[in-house]
Automatic annotation (TrEMBL), chains A, B:
Lineage, top ranks: Bacteria, Pseudomonadati, Pseudomonadota, Alphaproteobacteria, Rhodobacterales
Pfam families cross-referenced by the UniProt entry: Asparaginase_II
Protein name per its UniProtKB record: Asparaginase
Amino acid sequence: MRSAEMIDLWRGELCESRHAGHAVICDAHGVVEAWGRPAEVIYPRSSCKMIQALPLLESGAADAAGLTDRQLALACASHSGAALHVEAVDGWLTGLGLSEPDLRCGTHMPRDPAENRRLTCSDSAPCQLHNNCSGKHAGFLTLNRHLKGGPDYVEPDHPVQQAVKAAFEEVTGETSPGFGIDGCSAPNWACTVEGLARAMARFANPGPDRRGQAMRRLVDAMRSHPEMVAGEGRSCTGLMRAMGGAVAVKTGAEAVFVAILPEQGLGIALKITDGATRASEAAITALLIHLGVLDARDPTAQQLLDGPLANCRGRVTGALRRAPGFPT
Amino acid sequence: MRSAEMIDLWRGELCESRHAGHAVICDAHGVVEAWGRPAEVIYPRSSCKMIQALPLLESGAADAAGLTDRQLALACASHSGAALHVEAVDGWLTGLGLSEPDLRCGTHMPRDPAENRRLTCSDSAPCQLHNNCSGKHAGFLTLNRHLKGGPDYVEPDHPVQQAVKAAFEEVTGETSPGFGIDGCSAPNWACTVEGLARAMARFANPGPDRRGQAMRRLVDAMRSHPEMVAGEGRSCTGLMRAMGGAVAVKTGAEAVFVAILPEQGLGIALKITDGATRASEAAITALLIHLGVLDARDPTAQQLLDGPLANCRGRVTGALRRAPGFPT
């Protein structure tokens, strides 16, 4: 099956641009609803950070290091590099007896406007703490201390990444066909959209075992600390707040989005074929409204879907809307 | 016919994201080559600024105001809001006895890093001169002085916009089905991809009449002043320099791109369905290479297509590549 039309950008009376993709909703038993091609192979990118954090908990490394839920939320985050994120990761590393040069995520300018402005106007370069993945990497370093691995913990054959791969294949229920190198240099294992949705459904239906306990704790950490998972003005933070912490959501680069709905026992995964984040944000919003867990009138929901788009003079020019037939 | 696959983003061994679209190459007699659906109706957005500038020349307004080729390039520009652009538009308005508040384009932060930084770090708001369309609007104001129209020259029924509409329908050879409001508040008339390519072919094959003279002068202005049409580091400026001024190219929002090839007598228009600029830039690069006017090894060409994409640590993660069958 081809990709399904999901989100349209309207300007005046014309649909100006169109976004298609693949989306799957799973419960504990399998696929409940799907659009496009569930078997499409994708890189989950940052949407699978809660999977990448499983070995951190299951190994006992998180408890040995005394990690808080706030730190676990940060391990699952693509944060904005705001002061609160940078300070939290810095403190985490200090607690491990490590520091910024031990990270292997590289640098990029932070999204957070205040921190971006501070760096820009003081002619300062960002450090690795600013990297949106620095919390995930602090988690990798915590696991690495436990596993006594070498310093280059992002190499695909390193014990940390091999542990991540094993957990990833177990929760997706698939043998990964391979990996790509992510923006933060960690390997990102490929899976199908259905496999990613299946994994999210497992997070939504955690068992009493060690893995289930780890899943429950990570989901609760994300839902309790939405400001740590992304940042002010970001879709993940806004959507989790809009749903009152009932649902955990996570974006990934190139237009992946997942959601974990513990009360409904459902997991969602979607990928917009062209990689446009505006469309993955609108599509997950549409699916969360469809499932009755997000109010379509919520300001964050409106901002991501159906709300008026304004131009440089504040004139309404159009809107992002559901394509016909999506999601119903 | 559906849209044609054009540009793929590869990461590792997997095609991570895909971009499809519509592209047409015309000569003076009609369609030479096409991909996707030539009859697809689109908004040309800023790609049609050389069409929007035709009444400025044909009316005699440009000569009455003594406009230079540098100013005409700016009338066709989506500029970066660098100091040279802001100063040029400011001087143009002063020459008309007008000033910034007479513009109706609104404000946005400039792309130019130095000017963006200057405004950010001095807590200054951008003015309308920074708007990437301010040169087009200075052209509208020049025409408006000639036509003795009212101050709200962006209203669709204003004589300036009616003159633009007439020129647009004549050179595309189509009756426009309607307009959308552009980012700069001017009406943007819809046409087919084929109609836009036909218009570009007319610019590439200008006749001896008043219109042909206007077309030739605008194309020469763009090719002679690539730094005014966009700015340093931008695709239009880089591609025109890479082709030694032989070809005029222009981008438009939501992934439209056009090219005018006077030596070959060809015009190109393309629209990426999803609106991704990375794909429209890669696709026009592929077509210019295909037509033998751009060296695939040129650094700008490599940056836009096929060149390695690096992550936060400088590791190569993938590349934007032609989809199978595009363009050959």
